[in-house]
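Appendix B, record 7
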Amino acid sequence: VVPVALPWEDIEVAVQTGELDGMAWSGITEDYTVGWADVTKYFLTNNISGAWCGSYFANTDAWSKVPEHLQTLFRLCIDSSHYYRQHWYWGGEAKLRVEGSKLELTSIPDAEWDTVEAEAHKFWDEIAQTSERAKKVVDIFKHYNEVMAKAGRPYRYG
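Structure tokens (predicted):
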């Protein structure tokens, strides 16, 4: 297991040429939407975090100049987008797992997957060292994983 970060637009070609064996980035909905289902055979049901991330970024200096009422409006738009994505994602996810014709579902046994997660967490630790903001995000993911592991099935395998 060698975790790497690649630009999104390079992944499809990397899989087609054999540079990458697979990727842990998305749910099955995204695989069908972006075309990865056309260049891969399997969808791995194990996941690294289980947390859906809708990301919106703003330059901190520019954001501080935006009037408060417009910041509030933008945050409301983000919330609305998150709700839409949750509906779209989970409705599509279940349907494609059951009715999708391009990918075969497969899973790595939990004991083996623990190795993958351990390597991912080392990678997260490297990312966390890049900035205080990155550390905060990584800490949120780690806490989320701890809670889900304690909650057990159906929230988390094992």
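Remarks on this record: The chain has six helices and two strands. The mean pLDDT is 86.
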